[in-house]
Design a protein that fits this description.
- By secondary structure, the protein is α+β, with helices and mostly antiparallel strands.
- It is 24% helix and 36% strand.
Amino acid sequence: MSMQPQPGHGNPQQPGGYGPPPKQGMSTGLKVALGCGIPTVLGLLLLGGCGLLFTKAASDAGKELDKNHDSAAVAPGGSGSTKADEPDITKDVKVTSCTVKDGEYGIKELDLKIEYMNSGDRRFTYLAEGEVTVNGEKKSDILSTGQNLAPGQKYTDDSAGALAYDVAKSAKSGDRIECKLIKVSRNAY
């Protein structure tokens, strides 16, 4: 024989059963909003904080690099144009030879030599940029480096004319060849 549950005697589904009625849970939308929204906001705050730290670090690194770099353009009169508080580093670099000569095997070469003299208070690497002109017309570029020079150390780049091989090859005996420095830069070690 089967028994039917009686109202009021232990059947929680019926009114008058024992215990409180079951509570309603949060809606699905609220669960999604809390479950996804809070981690998203925290993630954005973390990303923004990292971005600020990276920007600050990059700015500080840039300022530190600027302390180790000097640059000066060479004015037409031969002196350098720099900021008032920076040394004139164009005096550290000069062209000591700019002539066409017969090289090995009778091939004409541009004998271009650039001398470096580190007048700074620490080790520097220099970069000299310029041009080679023939009868006042630009024919080639000059690119030369003096690397890792100690204070007071001299170095002469005997191969500075390597880029201007075509100038020497096409030079005639009456041509006026000039080698001009345009910009000098140096970086500290």
